[in-house]
Amino acid sequence: MDERTMRNMRDGVKKVPTPILAAAIVILVFLFAKPWVQVGPGQRGVVLYFGAVQESVLAEGLHFRIPIMQEVVLMDVKVQKVVTDTVAASADLQDVTSSIALNYHLVPDKANIVYQTIGVYYKERIIDPAILEVVKAVSATYTAEALITKRPQVSEAMRVSLMERLKEYNIAVDAFSIVAFSFSKVFAEAIEAKQTAEQLALKARRDLERVKIEAEQKVTAARAEAESLRLQRANISPDLIELRRIEANLKAIEKWDGIMPQVVGTGGVPLIGLGDVKKR
User: Fold this and answer.
1) On the CB side of 244, how many CA atoms lie within 13 Å of its CA?
2) Helix H or strand E encompassing 186
3) What is the 8-class DSSP label of residue 150?
4) Rounded Cα distance, 26 and 29, in Å
5) pLDDT digits over 156-190, tens only?
6) What are the angstrom distances between the C-alpha of 137 and each of 95, 113, 151?
7) Per the domain annotation, does 261 fall within a domain?
8) What is the DSSP letter of 122?
9) What is the extent of the structural domain holding 156?
10) For the chain, is the Cβ count within 10 Å smaller at the N or the C terminus?
11) Is residue 270 one of the residues assigned to a domain?
């Protein structure tokens, strides 16, 4: 840039009115200093005054700050999710690998305390270690089999313990769940074999009950039949026998078609029991 150009630029600046030049300078300083801060949805603003954390926490919206003296750190207070894999030992010394899912959020009006005592890396410093410790402590009170059969109780015990632990750090637990449990291959095969044996034993018991019921039904039926025969024998008398024989002969006569049978007695008389009829 030559001397003539520099002189023209100085002359141009001198021609700008002083108030306008001052206003332009103020605007530039204002924009550069950025004396405002916007707290977005699900956030809280932690105010630092020369680096010292203040008691006030900024809610969502636009807020003004004093440049240089004040700084605002944004903290996320929305519900967040973390999935952690843990390895623990059960009460019967079986290795248990579990996957834990946790939903949590910072207590909004305590965001300044969290920043002051923990910082922004609270997940790595507090949450992950707390999950590992709680899972190990609770798993040690149950056998490996109980961890499977009593999964809801185990999950609730872990949730309550973790909630109490994180509460001290102003972190609230929204949801807790055990995504998966896994054991060693040998133990898994033992559990499968035990379940198979229990199913076979249950089937055998059911078959035995069925056989017993069928046997009882047969005994009951036999007793009923024997009782019926006994009653029939008790009701049989000589007169009843004679009556039944006469009824049988009469039925035979009714069915006779008038043709003499081929087989006759000694005197050539058909054997149709006419002698029995004469007795009447």
Assistant:
1) 6
2) helix 185-235
3) T
4) 5
5) 999 999 999 999 999 999 999 999 888 877 776 76
6) 13, 28, 15
7) no
8) H
9) 80-183
10) N
11) no
